[in-house]
Here is the input.
Amino acid sequence: MGASLHHPARPYLLAYAALLVVALAPMWLATIPPLGDYPNHLARMHILVNAQDSELLSRFYQVHWAVIPNLAMDLLVPPLAHVMPLAVAGKVFIGLTLIMLSSGALALHYALYRRFSAWPFAVFLLLHNGLFLYGILNFLFGLGLALWGLAAWIGFPARRAWPRALLFYALSLLLFFAHLSALGVFALCALGHELRLYYTGRDSVPAARAAAWMMALALGPGLLMLVLLLSPADAARAEPLFRYGDLGFVASQKLGASQLLFGNYLRILDIATLGIVLWFILYAGMIKRLSLDRRMSWGLAALALAFLLMPFQVFGANFADSRILIALAFLFVATADLRGSGKFEATFALAVVAIFGVRLTVLADRWEQSESAHAEYLRAIEQVPEGSRLLAAWAGTPSQTFEPPLAHLAALAVMKKSVFLPSMYAMPRGQPIIFTPEYLPLAAQAPKLEQWFGSSPAWDKVIDQYDYILLVREHLFSVRPPAVLNPIYEGTDFRLYRTPRTARLAELAAPPI
Here is the structure.
């Protein structure tokens, strides 16, 4: 075993801190980090903080706390927003997510190998993945917590039974409420770890029995909460539990999920990164420089099987299967180890830093450019009166999701003007806000925000239901907006329209002469 594998802790931690600072830096280049769903999530935080004191917000939305396995941001950001601006609180949560993911991978690697090495720094290539760019933050925060949980599961002395039991009982609850998928990742890996130890004879029967009791205690609270979540009364008023789609769609999603591993803004850079990483893994494996800790092999195999079986949509949330693949990638980095000479390890470290630097430069440039789109939307939103009904729709293809302006920037109107926006995430099983009974039917009838491949909203209905309509890339709609819509603001590739409904309401509200 080479001396290069035994790096002292201080330089190792300093290197981690330096990479982390660089990873967090782009977040401060944008007022609202351009992460797909993030403006929608931030608007929900605004509702949670202000709905009780806002007559307009409470007209459209109501806070609905329940047993929901998707609350990481909802539990952390509102308290922070009482001591700092909401936009800053949101960035703090994003930063915590990146810290949890990166430090969790390093902690699990150390728990397995009991040494510091350059290999787990490869986790920085995964931090700004496609799910992160989509704004799927609760899962990623929960995944970071699961990585720390697995590190504790392996590293905590088994002889200290009661402290260990209390720790993992609490961890199970935290993982459940952070995100259900994160609890599933932890459960599969911890169970696989224990079964592997028992199968290989490294655990005695009493030790295996104790581990089984510990596992039941750790996962019991989460399973109980899941049963409550799936109660018939709740299921009757919620979205379908699973949604697979046809076989072709499933196959395309499984293949497409690999693009999310190194999702960035340049497809050629994503493909190049994936190719380089796969080549290195195969090469290092063939020359026996890269190996996987066999204690975790069953857990990783279970995750791989879960990825293949998992539908695209669960509880109304998309990318359910892709989340498992992202988790598998983080766990591979955390549970593998690179052995070799100091020169080999140094070359690997320099390659990681170089690729990370190129990818982060592209990301930082796009985030800085997003400020102009953000400013345009804010100027458009200023034209919308408080308490209005606003419909947002955008045309294009899924590949254009990351191209500014982002679809969910319309949610800024909820924060600035307390509008009704039917594309707000307000599902009973998914978020702690719901639409009020008066506006729930209108939200249920609303056209989808994303009008893929040239589809269009039903104009004849929406012009009578909404006061303002914001359209992105309207030239791609199969049916163009009707002439009765009055354009009041035009951005780079979006327009804000006033509908005839506003004039009719003004006439009704006008005092008699």
Observations:
- The two ends are 93 Å apart (CA to CA).
